Amino acid sequence: MNREQISRIAHADHPIKSPLDDDSVRRLLERGVPRGDERVLDLGCGGGEWLLRALATRPQLHAEGVDISEDALAQASQAASHLGVQERLVLHHQEAADFVSSQSFDLVLSVGAAHAFGGLLPTLAAARKHLAPGGRVLIGEGFWDREPSQEAVEMLGDFTDLATTVDRVVADGWTPVDGHVSTRRELDDYEWACWGSLASWALDHPADPDSSQVLATANTRRSEWLRVYRDTWGFVSLVLRQTSG
């Protein structure tokens, strides 16, 4: 079973692929699209969950999503049709970093997808290219809540602490106008949901040739979380506006 299939199973009970609960997602979207008639772009949209939630509650909003996963985009399209918002959603199957549009957007999203651009600041640079005057960016990024082990750094990446992360964003020409630091409950709920969904799938499909691999993956990832990074890693979501220009 490939990584994409494993990810789809892992997120079956937590479709937002970041440690954020439904209330946090709703509030961040309220801050990102305060009028309700904005044009929204998600760079690395996956199954389009952020866009679908925005479209379902804002009948005048229009959205576009970009992702390299054909399967994820097909899921997004199917879900949009089910919700009756398909006419207001455009999906692009390509690398998010290569996406070009003749129109600008009032909100550019990239939550938990900084790896697609090579880090936080390159992600913001990509978002800036698509942003309308006075527009907002909603970005999600990991940080170290306390000093990590070398194993944790090698596993998750070379993040900074929360204050330094925000300082880097501000120095890059952005002003935070809202934000959310994921709570311990959100962080834990996300991990339990992902690895629990994988384990449940394996136990429910004992005859499947991938069952043992999926169960082993669930056990390994859960152990890594509990032993390596649970006490040190955090996640922050920021709503940003350009400081000038």
Your description of this structure?
- The protein has a seven-stranded mixed sheet, sandwiched between helices.
- The chain has a single domain, classed as Vaccinia Virus protein VP39 (Rossmann fold, 3-Layer(aba) Sandwich), CATH 3.40.50.150.
- Helix content is 45%, strand content 22%.
- The protein is an alpha/beta fold and 245 residues long.
Order of helices and strands: HHEHEHEEHEHHEHHE
**Which residues sit in consecutive blocks of at least 5 with pLDDT less than 50?**
none
Radius of gyration: 18 Å
The proportion of residues in beta strands is 15-25%
Topology:
Elements: H1 3-10, H2 22-32, E1 39-43, H3 49-57, E2 62-67, H4 70-83, E3 89-93, E4 105-111, H5 120-130, E5 131-144, H6 150-156, H7 162-171, E6 174-181, H8 184-204, H9 211-229, E7 233-242
Parallel strand pairs: 1-2, 1-4, 2-3, 4-5
Antiparallel strand pairs: 5-7, 6-7
Helix pairs in contact: 1-8, 8-9
Q: Concise description?
A:
The chain has 245 residues and is an alpha/beta fold.
Keywords:
245 residues, alpha/beta, Rossmann fold, seven-stranded mixed β-sheet, 9 helices, 7 strands, 22% strand, globular
